[in-house]
Amino acid sequence: MRARDLVEEAPFVSPDDPIVKAYQVLTTAGLPGVVVREDGQYRVLPASRTLRVLVPQYVLDDPSLGRVWDEASADALTSRLADRTVADLVNAMELSDEDPEPAVGGDATLVEIAAVMSAARVPLVAVVEDGGFLGVVTVNRLVRHLIA
Amino acid sequence: MTFVAWAAVAVFVGVYVLVATERIHRVAAALGGAALVLGLGIVGSEEAFYSPETGIDWDVIFLLLGMMLVVGVIRRTGVFEYLAIRSAKVAKGRPYRVMILLVLVTAVASALLDNVTTVLLVAPVTLLVCDRLGLKPIPFLLAEALASNIGGTATLVGDPPNIIIASRANLTFNDFLVHLAPIVVVILIAYLVLIRLLFRKALVSVPGRAEALMSLDETEAITDRKLLVRSLVVLAAILVGFLLQRQTGVSPSVVALVGAGVMILLSPEKPRDLLVDVEWETLLFFIGLFILVGALVHVGALELLAEWVAGVTNGAVAPTMIVILIGSAVVSAIVDNIPYVTAMTPVVESLIASNPALGQDGGLWWALALGADLGGNATLVGASANVVVVGIAARNGLHISFTTWMKYGIPTAMLSIAIALPYVLLRYT
């Protein structure tokens, strides 16, 4: 079994897109992360890591401030996202050029995909064939085939 | 001066320049310098480790260590977050009142604990309060950093230079309360008026935002009520220990270490996790500086500096007070006040030895403390608390430039010194 047999359809976003679009992809596609395409390269933002932009830095600095936060003001969080873009999400990940690109070719084996996911610490990888984006392989689907 | 004396001075000046220009890490500079004076044989292990005159001042090191451990437990209780949010609510979200209360919380906390920890705890919650009120946070952050340096001046444990001065001059916690605290209260009141003028443009409330502040639940910030009560009891006991130093003869370093031990026993956290809060870098920086300054004392270089100052002022009381107070303020505005005060304590000691009138009621020591502590407000690099606040601001996307700092720091430092100078001259000459 190869990557192209496991692929799931998934939209990708680009750095100039509004940040809200990335969150829409997360919630509607039900995937554990979002694929960002930038200059022909693919990056994956794991869903949990996108929260870094949603939560104010001062709450990350002092987690006890998260406890005093009342539920009614949760929308104060989303209003902060109004003029921000996907590029802000990518920057918050603090990725460096040395980080492995979380993408595989269509004929990648299951173990190869597992190795890429593990090295890049992402829950899904982009599948690219002949320069075209086929979709993603998620960790759920991969494990299901590896273990079964 | 002999060749050895010149060598000791050259090493010290080299380290000072490296610390000031931040070319290499300050701990590396201080320990490297210490290694040089030890390696060159300018001082030996006897002078460096065991001599009260030329060696490492272990009272200072262990007092700092003890207080760092105490703070490490208290900061985890959430009491600072509680106090800051409570204050903002008591002020009903009105900007100037919020600023006054946050400044007072910061100043009082800085007097009891160290300034850096205080601003580290108050700054994030200030950002939350400003976010809710729709206010620009930079004025509030600046006001707090400046207040922490003013508040820290009031007590023996408030600012590291005070700890050094207390140990070298044999001054007690009560001496600081009697001689520095009253004038610091006056400076703080004047400062509260000054911030109204300095930040007037930012102190305009945004209609309808107070409600968002009121909906915060500050009681949720308290993680462990039992631990909070216990640690406040221990902190109170430590303060009583400081206050009774004359009667008990127990030095503050011992009181702080015992307090730290009790705190660690009471805390549910593992000691290893609490040790994370100890700033080993600061302690090692002190150790390196003490060895370097010990070498300067040993070769008699600081004696010469004292003679030079005495020459400039003719040894007269008032001019010496003025030179030490203003000179210390200017130097501390530009470079870290810790190496400065470490080097100046032997100088002040010999000035007092040559003219005992200078040491009347500790006069010249207070001039040194006031100048070194309050001068640090003038620039961004003048005090550690300033650097920390600018760092927190930057992480939250707020840029505070060197010149922005000076716009508010210089008036604050000048006002403080303008109040401190007549005080010192009237009370101690």
What is the fold's blueprint, element by element?
The complex is a heterodimer of chains A (about 150) and B (about 425).
Chain A: H1 3-6, E1 12-13, H2 19-29, E2 33-38, E3 41-46, H3 51-54, H4 57-61, H5 64-68, H6 75-79, H7 86-92, E4 103-105, H8 110-120, E5 124-129, E6 132-138, H9 139-147
Parallel strand pairs in A: 1-2, 4-5
Antiparallel strand pairs in A: 2-3, 5-6
Helix pairs in contact in A: 2-7, 8-9
Chain B: H1 3-21, H2 26-39, H3 45-50, H4 58-75, H5 79-90, H6 95-112, H7 115-133, H8 137-152, H9 160-169, H10 173-179, H11 181-198, H12 210-214, H13 225-243, H14 245-248, H15 252-266, H16 271-274, H17 280-299, H18 301-313, H19 317-334, H20 337-354, H21 363-375, H22 384-395, H23 402-428
Helix pairs in contact in B: 1-2, 1-17, 2-17, 4-9, 4-15, 5-6, 5-7, 6-7, 6-8, 7-8, 7-22, 8-11, 8-22, 9-20, 9-21, 11-23, 13-15, 17-20, 18-19, 18-20, 19-21, 19-23, 20-21, 21-23
Distinctive features:
heterodimer; A: 148 residues; alpha/beta; CBS-domain; three-stranded mixed beta sheet; 9 helices; 6 strands; 41% helix; B: 429 residues; mainly alpha; 0% strand
Description:
The complex is a heterodimer of chains A (148) and B (429). Chain A is an alpha/beta fold and 148 residues long. Chain A has a single domain (3-147), classed as CBS-domain, CATH 3.10.580.10. In chain A, 41% of the residues lie in helices and 20% in strands. Chain A is built from 9 helices and 6 strands; from the N terminus they run αβαββαααααβαββα. Chain A has helices at 3-6, 19-29, 51-54, 57-61, 64-68, 75-79, 86-92, 110-120, 139-147; strands at 12-13, 33-38, 41-46, 103-105, 124-129, 132-138. In chain A, the strands form 2 sheets. A 3-stranded mixed sheet of chain A has the order 1-2-3. Chain A has a 3-stranded mixed sheet with strand order 4-5-6. In chain A, α8 packs across α9 (139-147). Chain A starts with a helix and ends with a helix. The mean pLDDT of chain A is 86. Chain B has 429 residues and is an all-alpha fold. Chain B has one domain. Chain B contains 23 helices and no strands. In chain B, α1 packs antiparallel against α17 (280-299). Chain A binds chain B through residues 56-59, 61-62, 64-65, 67-70, 72-73, 76, and chain B through 78, 81, 85, 121, 123-125, 127-128, 131-132, 212, 215-218, 220-221, 223, 392, 395-397.
